[in-house]
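tool_call: predict_structure(chain=1)
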Amino acid sequence: MHIQNDYADQIRLISGSQDLKCMKCGRCSASCPQYEEMDVRPHQFVSYLQRGDIDALMDCESIWKCLSCFACVERCPRDVKPARLIEAARLLRIRRQSDDEFITPEQVPALLELDPDIPQQLLASVFRKYVK
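tool_result:
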């Protein structure tokens, strides 16, 4: 359970969201264009996080199906930001899958020499994924 709490805290920290403000009104899910495609809806996502059911969140397909359109963020009367929670869980899942696949700043010049056509934005996004 300790690891579950650590992951829940990491999701809260990465997202900057305050899930405890949620009053379970369901507006976030009602405004979601992917509602029918998601196995865990935005309002459920917040509830799972509050209960500490992080394994269910990490294994759900919703973290990949979220469009990050932020319709749920705009509709939330309590400023909970469900989409940011979902993005944080996505980021945490990526990090869990590739703990030993970090790219360090020292490796960047060698990567650019290997393929000079690599977009520098790609390398910058790799850093962003791991430093939030």
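agent: The chain is about 60% helix and 0% strand. Proceeding to next step.
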